[in-house]
Design goal:
Number of strands: 5
Strand order of the largest sheet: 4-3-2-1-5
Largest sheet: 5 strands, mixed
Pfam families: TnpB_IS66
Oligomer: single chain
Protein name: Transposase
Organism: Bradyrhizobium lablabi
Distance between the termini: 41 Å
């Protein structure tokens, strides 16, 4: 299962993909187009041309997980189409999955407690 932990790395493919692509083809796309290791535990997000569907690809330690979600009404909020990849925080991914506006949320740096002693 995919766990949304705070140190999770989420990479969003900026170009839409053909949604007939399988797990194997998307894994190859991660390696070749995104220049990342599909088995590293990061989450890779792919979008459809209509912007109302997404696929998530992740390695959970024992196998590849492929999740598909589509909205019955409306569209997901996506960045402009361009080459490359967009990095998201776990919070931004959760908002994206809920169909919410995530582009205004920026990850806040975590303050480390001062060591007294």
């Amino acid at each position: 299962m995919i766990a949304l932990r705070s140190d999770l790395k989420v990479l969003l493919a900026a170009q839409p993909v053909d949604f007939r692509k399988s797990v194997h083809t998307l894994s190859a796309l991660v390696s070749e187009a995104l220049r990342a290791n599909p088995y590293c535990g990061d989450i890779f997000v792919f979008r459809s041309k209509r912007m109302n569907r997404m696929k998530l690809l992740a390695w959970d330690g024992s196998g590849m997980v492929l999740v598909t979600k589509w909205l019955h009404q409306g569209r997901f909020t996506w960045p402009p189409i361009r080459d490359g990849v967009v990095h998201l925080s776990a919070t931004q991914l959760a908002m994206l999955l809920d169909g919410l506006e995530w582009t205004r949320v920026s990850p806040k740096p975590v303050k480390q407690p001062a060591i007294v002693g």
